[in-house]
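Design job #97: recover the sequence.
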């Protein structure tokens, strides 16, 4: 005699869904335990109970971590929906106490975002929410909406071109571009001519890693043809390249240039071409607009960067 759905529900400890959600997201017992603020042995024990309930191994070990089985993949969407409903509709009534929470906050940002956003954010988070942890992810733009909708990412920070219209967006501060040269570059003085700018070999950053999609392609939009020597998807390698190849230059966001300049390896110059400012924003999904933890988080983020209201602030 088969059991009714009601009987089966009584046999399922709903706390196990939290563990299944974390395992589907992290695909690692260690990371799942960290995200839930518990031990690896507790996660392993819960996984054993989940396997017995669903009569399936759910995850198998592979070189890249724990790979979900077909049944686990079939469970992904309903589990994500259930957990989102619990967070938005049940826990929303309970409020959020940052001082006592042990939540893991997840930000989507680029490597430049980590350099600009993380230091001040971590300072504020450790003061206000000492039990919480932080994780950052770098993902293609087309995946951001899905990750925010599922709750796998709490906020996306940065200058996100072509961000989905369905997301909420809040301006954090305006930034602008500056040109950086090696501190040992003696051929370029305190002011760079347009001819020097055109002629000098340059490093450009394309987050998509494709020609013609440079982060600073506003320069070409101003009708200036550059001598592009290297295209890279990584901002953080730029000052190292300029240190080893002093004849190269690069045009980067000013807050990033300020961070590079603190190490004394580069000088900051005003580009010899007028470039418009651009916005750095935070984005979140409507499903979590009223989630107390996300409301607190984005308020904290906004307050942290109020001092950056004008280019060069902070």
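Job complete. Output follows.
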């Amino acid at each position: 005699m088969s059991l009714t759905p009601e009987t089966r529900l009584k046999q399922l400890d709903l706390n196990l869904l939290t563990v299944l959600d974390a395992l589907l997201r992290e695909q690692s017992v260690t990371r799942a335990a960290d995200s839930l603020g518990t031990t690896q042995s507790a996660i392993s024990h819960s996984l054993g109970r989940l396997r017995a309930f669903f009569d399936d191994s759910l995850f198998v070990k592979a070189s890249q971590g724990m790979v979900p089985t077909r049944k686990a993949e079939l469970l992904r969407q309903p589990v994500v929906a259930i957990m989102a409903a619990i967070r938005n509709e049940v826990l929303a009534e309970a409020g959020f106490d940052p001082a006592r929470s042990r939540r893991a906050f997840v930000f989507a940002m680029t490597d430049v975002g980590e350099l600009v956003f993380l230091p001040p954010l971590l300072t504020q988070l450790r003061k206000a929410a000492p039990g919480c942890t932080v994780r950052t992810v770098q993902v293609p733009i087309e995946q951001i909406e899905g990750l925010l909708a599922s709750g796998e990412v709490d906020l996306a920070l940065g200058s996100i071109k072509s961000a989905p219209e369905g997301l909420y967006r809040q301006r954090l501060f305006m930034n602008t571009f500056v040109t950086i040269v090696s501190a040992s570059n003696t051929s370029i003085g305190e002011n760079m001519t347009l001819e020097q700018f055109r002629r000098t070999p340059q490093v450009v950053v394309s987050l998509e890693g494709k020609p013609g999609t440079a982060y600073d392609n506003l320069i070409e939009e101003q009708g200036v043809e550059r001598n592009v020597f290297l295209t890279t998807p990584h901002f953080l390698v730029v000052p190292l390249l300029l240190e080893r190849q002093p004849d190269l230059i690069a045009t980067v966001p000013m807050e990033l240039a300020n961070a590079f300049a603190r190490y004394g390896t580069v000088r900051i110059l005003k580009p010899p071409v007028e470039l418009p400012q651009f916005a750095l924003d935070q984005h979140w999904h409507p499903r979590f607009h009223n989630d107390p933890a996300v409301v607190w988080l984005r308020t904290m983020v906004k307050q942290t960067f109020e001092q950056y209201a004008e280019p060069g602030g902070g």
